[in-house]
Specification:
With about 100 residues, the protein is of the alpha/beta class. It has one domain (about 15-95): Response regulator (Rossmann fold). Helix content is about 45%, strand content about 15%. A 3-stranded parallel β-sheet has the order 2-1-3, sandwiched between helices. The termini are far apart.
């Protein structure tokens, strides 16, 4: 008798990608891939961030996402600013 495998992820899992200047075509493509992967895994996902280049707003959005405790957070590579601020470093460590 075969038994169906239970999914590795739960439908309630939420993953958030935080970036800046998210209206650029690059981030639209990244969002499409991120959402496709989430759909394949059966989880929720979203790309958030300011629509213009605003690193301070990006950091603020990141902090709000950490408070929401999603299953995972992705941060764009250009977000080195997260590691430069002492208070943000603590926030990053707490989310691991």
């Amino acid at each position: 008798m075969c038994r169906a495998r239970s999914p590795y992820h739960e439908e309630t899992e939420r993953y958030v990608f935080v970036s800046t200047n998210i209206n650029l075509p690059y981030w639209r493509e990244a969002e499409a891939g991120f959402l496709d992967a989430a759909k394949m895994l059966g989880v929720k996902a979203e790309l958030i961030g300011p629509t213009t280049y605003d690193p301070d707003a990006e950091v603020g959005m990141f902090r709000k996402v950490v408070e929401q405790q999603p299953a995972g957070i992705c941060v764009s590579r250009r977000a080195r600013r997260f590691s430069r601020r002492k208070s943000t470093r603590r926030c990053c460590w707490a989310s691991r």
